[in-house]
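Minutes, project check-in
Item: structure for the 136-residue chain
Input as provided by the requester:
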Amino acid sequence: MAYLKQNRLWQGLLLLFLLHQFLEKGLELRNPWVDSYLDDLLCMPILLGAMLGEQMDLFNRKRLSLLDVSIGIVLVSLLFEWYLPGCASGYTADVNDVFCYVLGGLFFFIFMNPTPNGTKNEIGRFIRNVTPNTNA
């Protein structure tokens, strides 16, 4: 998974997730907002980054499509906000969590998903398209 070894942003997000788990569960340091939403915000960039690394290694795919990201968001939302709360008492459905999954998916798509034309992310392509060409 060369993508994951080279992607410092993905590694940083994973480290932040692990640090939060250690602080929350290991040291029992609590912050209600962070404990409620940080993991949900980090979920999609970490999962989609791992999925992209796997897709690159196995299928030589260069990026995930917006449809791939959207399906990931829907599946995670259904699993954690509908199915698990219905069958396990340790889970609670929260529409704010779905909002966090969407934000995390957009973060992945904009900042972590390589574009087909070689730029590192969608922002670079957007900036090139909206910036006036001063060479003309």
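Outcome recorded: The mean pLDDT is 84.
No further action items on this chain.
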